[in-house]
Amino acid sequence: MSFSPFSASAVSSWLLVLLCAVSGAYCLLRARRAGRPERGPAAGEAVMGFGMAAMAVPSGTGPWGPGVLLAVFCGASVHALWMLRDGVHHAHHLVGSLAMAYMALSMTAGHGHGRAGLPVVTGALLLYYAGYVLLGGARLVAAGGGQPPVAAAGGPEDLTRACRLAMGTGMLAMLAAM
Length: 178
Known about the structure:
The chain is an all-alpha fold.
């Protein structure tokens, strides 16, 4: 079975790549402008955005790709674990980097997207990210205070929330595809 670059699956994969790459780029710019305390989390989100973009490429990243991604996200997991010393609010970064490492490991075991993974782990991550996306969406809507969307655009904080929501939605989509 050949993979058509114009199939619905390929188009949705490329849209996910674009969404994650744009989110990663925004987080990278945010890290560059941020003060020292905010720089680490913003850089971590940038790594996640770009890593998610690489993992969502329809044709895969080549035979070397899953191993490299696994190493990168294991490193990101260690960094997120280190960040936990500053407070439990960094736990989401740990869950995210471990989820990415899990998906990369599943890609190595299953030789591609959607062919591997432990159902109980995938299910738990799906529940976590479904809750994260629903809560993040509710917070984003509440931030507007019920005003029309044009008047509700509150600036950088709302854009940061939208970026996090987009990456959470992307993670949910990738987990659902496993």
